[in-house]
Design brief:
924 residues, alpha+beta, eleven-stranded mixed beta sheet, 22 helices
């Protein structure tokens, strides 16, 4: 029940930031010179003495609490056992870094998540009925199941309680806190997959362009000249590794609260900081909850002066190792592959001949004569010490075999049953058990995954740091069941969401950058998946998938249920058991599954207009963020603009701001301000700030652009979108002060505000431009800004025409996209078929964007669906979905349409048009 973005004005009352306290850690040497360490240690010692005098179980009548600053509860002890455990815990080794000891807790903004878009592949196909081939569904009965109606052959899974999957724009720290505080989702996530920045040696942490993946490591000067050559992760933090560990620890602390008691978290990392991140996870989740360190191959070769790095690592931790959910995964045994090296014997069909395999036969079992069985000679004894009365020798195969060490794996009677079933073989003086290759034609996977290499033949790479689908698949299948919730706080290319959708899991993913979300949105919206049969022939995955045992014509097991024959089952004359291969559910080949409905959300709260800027001190305190502890939001943005004064446009056009500085007095209703006339007398190539904002969360600057003309800049709110009121107030003030141009810099902007900026020159007498600021700036003082960081980007509104045909149906054309060039003070026009993506809402309600048609020009994004629907839709449909002209649609005369364009930097640009203003189409 998240609110839609159009309702954000109703959210006037803010929740206070949530305080998360870190686990107390002391110097393992217990250095008592530290006051807090000494106080806590001595307090625990006193409690141990007090509790030891109580009767068993030595519990206090009421819990004892250790209070810190502000009477915050740092520790609670119920009795002797708790006190001893806590005192022992104080002495455990822990990872320390700069700034850790100074921060006993963190405050995270508590913001609601607003739904901006609702997306559904099924809904898009429904709105394109006009492109259906005539009579397809009506002819279904003539051809049986193979030609079932489209609605039965192309459909998504459904989830209980009308769950809709979620994609969120926002910092993962704020998103997770919102899930906990606004939605009560603590303890509801079954698996978390986190793929954080690997280290601190690169210049950037995001792919800056949707359609350019050729990201290379380079120095900052080169990156400034070649903006597409920016690293895929901005890993350079103000304090290097120290800031990196703080960033990661904060997110792990909140992630732990989201997990179910049986839940798991996987953290993907390289060997650069594997040891540090493991220590960090030990501290947050507890070393006792570490499950495994998984090594997976990412490339076949690596250039290096010494040993090349070809693998990455997964650190797997559980919420509670005693309750962790684990589903074993298996690989089918293949000759010569891992897990088959011990199968070196072959046996004739009549069992009269037993011999070793040749080298060629070991690698190709088809070289053996028909009917021969392959087996491994396994020990008939174990390392367990023999108990009193257990047999010291076994008589079998006409011989007596003494027990050399350990104990026999079964009793003499059991060995008799094994011999009766021809399961014994003597090799030298040893009695061995014959384990046939087909006793269990699969082998359990280990923590080394050699088959995870991404190639162009296995899967398309959409993002510069995309993870192999097989890695995500295994993590999901090992730790979750169908219908359970998977969360990825580091969306990237959306592989976690993609594989969760593939395997019928619910999912939430988020990212602070728009580029990966744009890529993930396209990937999911146009994807097709197998339809795995659900128990009871339903559509709800939580009912469980269907698994059956079946063989091919060669007798090989190919189903999801495998036989599992063991020494124990034969020796004790038990029926053989079966194992389920969870990655092999039964598939309905006649159904193509599409992505279920999902929504696009963002942590964008109420827009702040000038009229509502004066808030009580209590409310101001409630919206204060951690970044403001080291300086106000306005100070930070000024500092960022000084360090990243380059506003970059398409075609590598730029405008440079220099010598930026604030006025000592403010303007427009908050504090008096006067124009500093001396600023205009300085060197004309410098930019001089001479004014402040029209509201509490805005800042108005005056300066000289690279064209030597004075310009004004206004910053939007830190946790909100630029409102129409803010643009109006800033433009009014800028016009009165004779500025030549107004730049509005913000993280998000309302559609009405965009419209005002577009017409600002005509309405207010001053040209204006919206400048998009990356969400990464919310990392505050942790972020080290470089000239190459692509902090700000400038874009305009889509140019859209709406026409009405003779059949009363409407059609929308994206003519192009205007991009303002402040160097020449001119607009540059990009054609409509040269944008990464654009979407259409044919009946926009002003609250939330419902995607009814989605277009990905000059790409093959829709190819999978095109192939699946070739017999159902006319070819003209796919021309529309890959172009700049919509398919014709019906709508109400009084309705309005909305067009949203995603540019190369992932920015979302939206324009709204009334259908009553549509022009009549000219007959061809």
């Amino acid at each position: 029940m998240r609110p839609e973005v159009g309702t954000q004005a109703q959210f006037k009352k803010r929740k206070a930031p949530k305080t998360y306290r870190y686990d107390s850690s002391l110097d393992p040497a217990l250095s008592w010179d530290d006051g807090s360490s000494r106080a806590m240690g001595e307090w625990l010692l006193d409690l141990i003495v007090e509790a030891s005098k109580l009767a068993a179980p030595h519990r206090f009548p009421t819990p004892k609490e250790f209070l810190g600053a502000g009477n915050a509860v740092l520790m609670t002890v119920n009795g002797l056992e708790d006190a001893v455990r806590e005192l022992q815990g104080l002495g455990k080794p822990f990872l320390d870094w700069a700034g850790k000891a100074e921060r006993l807790s963190m405050d995270v903004p508590t913001l609601p998540l607003f739904i901006h878009e609702r997306l559904s592949t099924q809904a898009i196909l429904e709105t394109l009925r006009g492109h259906k081939r005539e009579g397809v569904d009506e002819q279904a009965s003539l051809f049986g199941d193979a030609q079932r109606p489209l609605a039965e052959r192309m459909k998504p899974y459904e989830h209980r309680d009308k769950w809709v999957n979620r994609m969120v724009l926002g910092d993962s720290l704020v998103v997770m806190n919102s899930m906990l505080e606004y939605e009560g989702m603590g303890g509801q996530v079954q698996m978390i997959y986190m793929d954080p920045p690997y280290g601190v040696k690169f210049g950037s942490n995001f792919q800056p362009f949707v359609r350019k993946r050729d990201v290379k490591h380079n120095d900052d000067a080169d990156l400034t000249r070649e903006p597409e050559m920016v690293q895929a992760y901005r890993d350079t933090w103000e304090l290097g590794l120290h800031s990196y560990l703080t960033y990661l620890r904060d997110r792990l602390v909140i992630a732990r609260d989201l997990l179910t008691p049986s839940g798991s978290i996987f953290v993907q990392i390289s060997d650069d900081n594997l040891h540090h991140v493991r220590e960090l996870l030990d501290e947050v989740f507890g070393a006792e909850n570490r499950i495994s360190v998984i090594t997976f191959i990412k490339t076949t070769s690596s250039t290096a002066d010494t040993l090349g790095a070809v693998a990455d690592y997964l650190l797997w931790y559980s919420k509670d190792v005693q309750r962790v959910k684990y589903r074993a995964l298996f690989n089918t045994k293949e000759a010569g592959e891992e897990g088959t090296s011990q199968y070196i014997w072959a046996e004739a069909p009549d069992r009269t001949v037993q011999r070793k395999l040749s080298e060629a036969e070991r690698n190709d079992h088809s070289l053996l004569p028909k009917g021969w069985r392959i087996f491994a000679a396994d020990n008939a004894s174990s390392s367990r010490a023999a108990g009193d009365g257990e047999a010291k020798e076994i008589t079998a195969l006409g011989r007596t075999f003494p027990l050399r060490k350990g104990s026999w794996k079964t009793s003499p009677e059991g060995f008799a049953n094994l011999e009766k079933n021809h399961r014994l073989i003597a090799i030298g003086a040893s009695l061995m058990y014959k384990r046939y290759f087909d006793d269990f034609p699969a082998s359990a996977i280990s923590n080394v995954w050699r088959d995870t290499l991404m190639t162009g033949f296995s899967e398309a790479k959409n993002y510069v740091v995309q993870t192999s689908q097989k890695v995500l698949q295994r993590c999901i299948l090992m730790t979750t069941d169908p219908g359970e919730l998977v969360f990825d706080p580091t969306c990237g290319s959306g592989t976690a969401a993609f594989m969760a959708e593939h395997w019928g899991r619910r999912w939430i993913t988020c990212d602070a950058s728009r580029v990966p979300l744009a890529l993930a949105r396209q990937r999911l919206l146009t994807a097709t998946f197998p339809w795995y049969k659900i128990k009871g022939n339903g559509d709800v995955p939580s009912s469980g998938f269907e698994y059956v045992r079946k063989q091919n014509k060669n007798g090989q097991e190919i189903g999801g249920v495998f036989p599992y024959v063991t020494l124990k089952s034969i020796a004790n004359q038990l029926s053989s058991t079966e194992r389920v291969l969870v990655d092999r559910p039964e598939e309905d080949k006649l159904v193509t599954r599409i992505t279920g409905p999902f929504c696009f959300e963002a942590t964008i709260p109420t827009p702040l207009d000038v009229e509502g800027s004066e808030k009580p001190e209590t409310e101001r305190a409630a919206i204060e963020t951690p970044s403001e502890q080291a300086g106000t939001y306005l100070d930070r943005m000024l500092d960022i603009l000084r360090r990243s004064p380059l506003l970059r446009l398409e075609g590598n056009r730029t405008v440079q701001l220099q010598n930026i500085r604030p006025l000592t007095r403010t303007l427009a209703g908050l504090v008096e301000a006067n124009v500093d006339a001396s600023a205009e007398g300085q060197t004309p190539t410098l930019t001089d700030v001479v004014g402040e904002a029209a509201e509490a969360n805005g800042l108005l600057l005056r300066g000289m652009g690279s064209n030597r003309k004075p310009v004004a800049i206004v910053f939007g709110p830190e946790n909100g979108s630029i409102s129409e009121g803010l643009v109006y107030s800033a433009a009014k003030e800028a016009t009165a002060k004779d500025y030549t141009h107004l730049y509005c810099i913000g993280f998000a902007i309302e559609p009405n505000a965009r419209q005002l900026i577009q017409s600002c020159e005509d309405v207010m007498g001053i040209a204006a431009t919206y400048v998009q600021a990356t969400m990464d700036l919310n990392m505050g003082d942790l972020l080290k800004n470089m000239r190459s960081s692509q902090i700000f980007s400038v874009c305009g509104l889509p140019d859209v025409t709406v026409t009405k045909g003779a059949d009363d149906r409407y059609q929308v054309e994206l003519v192009g996209l205007d991009v303002f060039d402040p160097i020449s003070m001119e607009n540059h026009h990009a054609k409509g078929d040269d944008v990464p993506a654009w979407m259409l809402d044919t009946d926009y309600n002003g609250m939330c964007f419902h995607v009814t048609q989605a277009f990905f020009p000059r790409t093959s994004a829709w190819d999978a669906l095109k192939k699946a629907l070739k017999a159902d839709y006319e070819a003209s449909l796919w021309d529309h979905l890959a172009g700049s002209i919509s398919a014709p649609f019906e709508s109400r005369k009084e309705a309005q349409i909305a067009v949203k364009v995603i540019d190369d930097r992932g920015n979302e640009l939206m324009v709204v048009k009334k259908l009553s203003d549509a022009t009549m189409a000219v007959a061809q």
